Amino acid sequence: MISFFRHKAAFVLFLLAGILSAEKQAFCENAQDELASRNVSLNLAMEDVSQILIPKEVYVGDTAELRFSFNAPVDLFAGVPAEKINDGELLLNTESSSFRMQNYDVKQVSLRLIGRTYTLSLVFVPWVTGTIKFPAFDLNALIHSETKVSIPAELADKPFVIELQPVEVLSLVKKYNALTLRSPLPPSLLPGTNYIVWSLIILVILLIFAVIFVLAKFPMISEKIYSLSDSLAHVKNARQTKHKIRALLKKKCSDTEFAQQWQTITRKYLSARFSTPFNSIATNSIAKRIMNVTGNFMSGEQEDSVISLTSLFTRTDYIRFARDSIDSRLLPAEEHEAAFYPGEKEVIAKLTIDAISNLEANPKGEFSL
C-alpha cells in the first residue's frame, strides 16, 4: 500500500515537472521572438562600418571632420525629393537637438551615397580638451525631418540609430609643455622690408629738397613758363597768319578787296605779336610803335622786316584809297594806277611771310621779343 502511494506520488511529480518544462520552453521561445522583433524594430543592420577623423590630431578651435561610412540594406534616400540631393549628397539640419552641445559646434552635417556605401560627414569645432562623446541619433528620422517628407511605410518602424565613436581633443599646452604665457612678439617684417623703408625715407628727403628748390626758384621758373607759353602763342599766331596769307592769295577777289583783307590779317598778327593794338593806327606810325614796344632791341633782319611791312602797308593803302583819284591818272599809268601789276600779289604774300619769319626768330634761331 505504501509502495503504491509512493509510485503514484512519483508519477504526479513527474507529470508536474513535464508541464513546467513545457511552459518554460514556450516562454523562452516567446521571449526570444519578442527580443528579435525588438532588435529589428530598434535598428536596421549596418555592414562595413568605419569611422575616420580628419585631421587625426584635433586641437581646441580646429575645424575637424568626422566621416562615418557604412553599408545599409535599405535606401535611406527613399522618398527624398530629387532637388534636395546634389551629386548624391544630402545636407542635414545642424540645428537638430542631437547636435546642440556646449563643448563643440557643428558646422555642417551631410550624407553622401557612393555605390552602396553611405558616408555621414560631421564638420565640427571643439572648444574643450579631452574626450568628446556624440549622442546617438536616428538618421532615418533626421533625413525625413530635414526634407519635410513623411517616412515611407517600409521604414516607418525601423529607426536607423547612429552611434559615433568618441573623439579625443588634444591640448597645445601639453604638447609644447607651455605653462606660462609668452611675451608678445614684435611684428615680423617681410624680406626686403628694410630696403623699402630706407628707400621711402630717401625719396621723401629728395621730395622735400625738390619742393624747397622749386619754392626758391619759383619766380624764375614761373617766368620761364610764362615765356615758353608766350613763345608758343607767338608761333601759333605766326602759323595761322601765314596760312591766311596763302589762302588770300588763292582767293579770287578784286585788288581793293585783296589790299583790305591783307591789312586786316597783318594788323591782327602785329597786335598779337607785340601785345598792343595795331587795328586803327596810321601806316606811318606802325614802325615807330614797334620800335617803342621792343625798345629798339631788334636784329638788323627784324628791322628790315618792319620796314618791308611798312612799305607794303603804304602800297595797299594806295590800292584801297587812290582809285579814281588825280594821282591814279598820272603817267606812266602802270606806276600810278591804283591796281596791282601782274605778279605783285604773289610778291606781297612772299614778303609778308618772310617778314613774319624774321620777326619770330633772333639771329641764334631762338624766339625773341
In short:
Helix content is 50%, strand content 15%. It is an alpha+beta fold and 369 residues long. It has 3 domains: 47-173, Immunoglobulin-like; 190-224; 235-360.
Commentary on this structure:
With 369 residues, the chain is of the alpha+beta class. The chain folds into three domains: 47-173, Immunoglobulin-like; 190-224; 235-360. It is built from ten helices and eleven strands. Strands 1-3-7-6-5-4 form a six-stranded antiparallel β-sheet. The longest helix is centred in the N-terminal third of the chain and has 41 residues, at 2-42. The protein is elongated, with a radius of gyration of 57 Å. The relative contact order is 0.07.
Keywords:
single chain, 369 residues, alpha+beta, Immunoglobulin-like, 3 domains, six-stranded antiparallel beta sheet, three-stranded mixed beta sheet, 10 helices, 11 strands, 50% helix, 15% strand, disordered N terminus
